[in-house]
Design goal:
By secondary structure, the chain is α+β, with helices and mostly antiparallel strands. It has a single domain, classed as paralog of FGE (formylglycine-generating enzyme). The chain has 5 helices and 13 strands. Strands 11-10-9-12 form a 4-stranded mixed beta sheet, covered by helices on one side. A 3-stranded antiparallel beta sheet has the order 1-4-13, with no helix packed on it. A two-stranded antiparallel ribbon has the order 2-3.
Length: 318
């Protein structure tokens, strides 16, 4: 198994399926209710910010152009994903493989002791546990449920699961360039979705970690885990939680350097690669370990991996 320790989310290659050819295609059939129309155009993508992760390929700053498109106002919620499952009978990767990864603070104490005894703590990322029976509908393990979380973003979904949902909805995953264009909300080269200050006037603008990671989350922003998909103020384009809450899958394959000399018009990432990009950071991001809630930050995971802090939203062409 190939582990990805590049951020707050564990990953592994669970499927021996051969990589597919480039699947990107334009989609104009899905309903646009709950989506925002974005005009597109040229914008400055990436950053040269010294607080960034150079190895992630956050820079250099470059001019990129994207066509007009629609973007979901929020990440896909548990209620929305549940309708997809009910209508199609789809089985997620976590369900097929029989497990997913759960953050240690959310585990029942007895279950946690048993998992420790079984060696189910992930080496190098000890705050994550391999939990059998954890999936989108049982986010902390087989005895848990989604009570009071219908409006929260769905988690424990792989890139492949996200693709399947998008196809069902007549939509697609956004490209990485589209995601960053949308996240910036019309602002130019700001560090965060809302500006250059993390908590302007002491106000929390997104759902990330406060306290001593990974043991103590003081919940100053109001949440220890996922927040409702419409929490906090939307950005300048009317999009919610483009930073924090959950990592979001995008279409592109991962490369730390392909974009340096890559296409600048509607880029879709490298044509090959085993991992897929995630954007936006999550409720586990903290400046001491993973300040990837910055608007130019990026990471990746294998397309069949799933965790309790990764979801997605859809895009659609105009």
């Amino acid at each position: 198994m190939e582990e990805n320790k590049s951020c707050c989310a564990p990953g592994e290659k669970r499927c021996s399926c051969p990589p597919k050819p480039d699947e990107f295609r334009r989609v104009r059939s899905g309903a646009i209710e709950g989506m925002v129309r974005l005009d597109g155009g040229e914008f400055l993508m990436g950053t040269n910010d010294p607080v960034g992760f150079v190895a992630d390929g956050e820079g250099p700053i470059r001019e990129v152009m994207v066509d007009p498109f629609y973007m979901d106002e929020t990440s896909v919620t548990n209620a929305e994903f549940g309708r997809f499952i009910k209508e199609t009978g789809y089985e997620t990767d976590a369900q097929k493989f029989g497990y997913s990864y759960v953050f240690h603070l959310f585990l029942d104490p007895v279950l946690k002791r048993n998992l420790l005894a079984l060696g189910r703590q992930l080496l190098g990322l000890e705050w994550w546990f391999h939990v059998e029976g954890a999936d989108w509908d049982h986010p902390e393990g087989p005895e848990t449920n989604l009570n009071n979380r219908a409006d929260h973003p769905v988690v424990h979904v792989s890139w492949r699961d996200a693709q399947a949902y998008c196809e069902w909805a007549g939509k697609r995953l956004p490209t990485e360039a589209e995601f960053e264009y949308a996240a910036r909300g019309g602002l130019v080269q700001k560090r965060y979705v809302w500006g250059d200050e993390l908590t302007p006037g002491g106000k929390h603008m997104c759902n990330i970690w406060q306290g001593n990671f990974p043991e103590i989350n003081t919940e100053e922003d109001g949440y220890v885990g996922t927040a409702p998909a419409r929490s906090f103020e939307p950005n300048g384009f009317g999009l919610y939680n483009m930073a924090g809450n959950v990592w979001e899958w995008v279409f592109d394959r991962w490369s730390p350097n392909f974009h340096v000399n890559g296409p600048r018009i509607n880029p879709i990432g490298p044509p090959v690669g085993e991992r897929r990009v995630t954007r936006g950071g999550s409720y586990l991001c903290h400046y001491s370990y993973c300040n990837r809630y910055r608007v130019a930050a990026r990471t990746a995971n294998t397309p069949d991996s799933s965790t309790g802090n990764t979801g997605f939203r859809c895009a659609r062409d105009i």
